[in-house]
Design a protein that fits this description.
Elements: E1 2-4, E2 13-14, E3 26-27, E4 45-51, E5 56-61, E6 75-80, E7 86-90, E8 105-107, E9 113-117, E10 122-126, E11 132-137, E12 143-147, E13 152-156, E14 160-165, E15 170-175, E16 184-186
Antiparallel strand pairs: 1-16, 2-3, 4-5, 5-6, 6-7, 8-9, 9-10, 10-11, 12-13, 13-14, 14-15
Length: 191
């Protein structure tokens, strides 16, 4: 089962998909994201990945703290599992000057990070310091999940769900129409 959930940070999400349509999502708890350096600054969550090995969340941050700001400072925030504090961040905007935001985030088995750079129409592959390992082009990528069984990526866009090799070769295309989603979860135990 694959399902996408956008613009929500929730401790537990229960979604029942019937006939490929998800009408409603209910949360049993809503959590506040921790503030950045200064009090009451926060950040804009645009991607979410639970890292079981590190016992924390990797959160894509658009890096735009107020809606009318023109500058994006996209980063990946590594946050404690209870959302109490930011452990560290990866300031991607320092390495990628054309990056406007980060949508989806995931990790490979080797610990490297994959992210959706929606504004650049790219999937970027980086190390823990934010240095690029590689990238490939996909129009409007918004959600991403690593499939460790096949060493491939599932990439969600506004119109398609793609299964891609790590080199960016599309292996499977599924037509979808999901706008505004920026998280993608792959439940490998149920597929």
């Amino acid at each position: 089962m694959i399902f996408a959930v956008g613009n929500l940070i929730l401790s537990h999400i229960r979604v029942k998909i019937e006939q490929e349509k998800c009408d409603k999502i209910y949360a049993n708890k809503i959590l506040k994201l921790p503030d950045r350096e200064k009090s009451n600054i926060g950040f804009t969550c645009t991607g979410l990945y639970w890292d079981q090995e590190e016992d924390c969340f990797f959160i894509g941050n658009a890096g735009k703290y107020k809606p009318d700001e023109k500058t994006f400072q996209a980063s990946i925030e590594i946050v404690e599992k209870d959302f109490s504090t930011i452990k560290r961040d990866i300031p991607c905007y320092l390495n990628f000057e054309n990056m406007r935001d980060i949508q989806g985030v995931t990790k490979s088995i080797d610990g490297t990070i994959w992210l959706c750079s929606y504004g650049e129409n790219k999937i970027r592959h980086i190390n823990e310091d934010g240095n690029e390992i590689g990238n490939f082009d996909i129009k409007e990528p918004s959600g991403i999940a690593n499939d460790s069984r096949s060493n491939t990526l599932w990439v969600l866009t506004n119109n398609y769900l793609y299964n891609c090799s790590y080199e960016g070769m599309v292996q499977k295309t599924i037509k979808v129409h999901i706008k505004g989603q920026d998280q993608l979860f792959l439940d490998e135990k149920k597929i």
